[in-house]
Amino acid sequence: MVVGVALPVARYVAKWVPQVDRAALHAGARASQIITRGGLAAGEPVFTRDGSITVDFAGGVVALMSYVPGAPLQSLPRDQPLLGKTLARAHTIAGTEKRRGPLFPFLVDPATPGSTMEPWVRLALASVQAEYRSLPPLTWGLLHGDPAPEAFRLDPETGRVGLIDWAAATRGPLLYDVASTVMYLGGDTAARSFLGVYAAAGPLPTDEMGAHLSAMRRYRGAVQAAYFAGRLARHDLTGIADEEENWKGLHDARDMLKELGMPALRRRDGAGS
């Protein structure tokens, strides 16, 4: 079946995913719509004539998104203030609340597929689960889910920065997005400029960032470990040349968790390496 869309003259991006990821694509499209209508370019979806976001295509589903012009930002110090300011702005658009609740429970679960790839993985997932549940209510809002520098696009003609790739969007503790960006920037010290700008412009209380960023960084590291362990268990080579890249991702997550002082890994001294 062909479903038509009415398009003005402009540039668009077509995003295809397998049927299993339909819900995530819809959630990301809705999030990008909210963010765009809040004044920040995010690649909002183009709806079909019958009001749908996606169309079945080639064994999966495809969505058409508005193109966000510009070049990706980098982890360089010169780009960090833009990263901090843009993420802070995104976090203020959809409102915030103080609460507790699960965050990606299907990933951070000691029984998740791939958790037996190496002995430390299950221990790490159980450890971050317990630590996360012990945290007080945190500031929740609309998460990007994976705000790596390349998701931020700087338009050289206007100086405006957009934020794309909302496929992992969900509501959750905003500190998770901060921890994700810190991970991509190389840690607290390397990300000092980003953290300073975000703290000044964002909705998170200073005491929340100071008290709980390390815990959320461990949680983010566990999500990373679960992601690559799952890819290894499924023999998933999407986007990579061979399985060694999945093993490297898993071991990078382990090393990050060790550096962050995860007790489960200290006790085993890196078992499974």
Commentary on this structure:
This protein has 273 residues and is α+β, with helices and mostly antiparallel strands. The chain has 2 domains: 12-66, no CATH class; 72-268, Alpha-Beta Complex (Aminoglycoside 3'-phosphotransferase, Chain: A, domain 2). Helices cover 44% and strands 15% of the residues. The chain is built from 8 helices and 10 strands. Strands 1, 2, 3 and 4 form a 4-stranded antiparallel beta sheet that branches. A hairpin with a 2-residue loop joins strand 3 and strand 4. The longest helix is centred in the last third of the chain and has 29 residues, at 206-234. The N and C termini lie far apart (51 Å). The relative contact order is 0.16. Mean pLDDT is 91; it is low at 1-5 and 269-273.
Topology:
Blueprint: E1 12-18, H1 22-37, E2 45-46, E3 54-57, E4 60-66, E5 71-72, H2 80-93, E6 97-99, H3 119-134, E7 138-143, E8 152-154, E9 161-163, E10 170-173, H4 174-185, H5 192-201, H6 206-234, H7 244-259, H8 263-268
Antiparallel strand pairs: 1-4, 2-4, 3-4, 5-8, 6-7, 7-10, 8-9
Helix pairs in contact: 2-5, 3-6, 4-6, 6-7
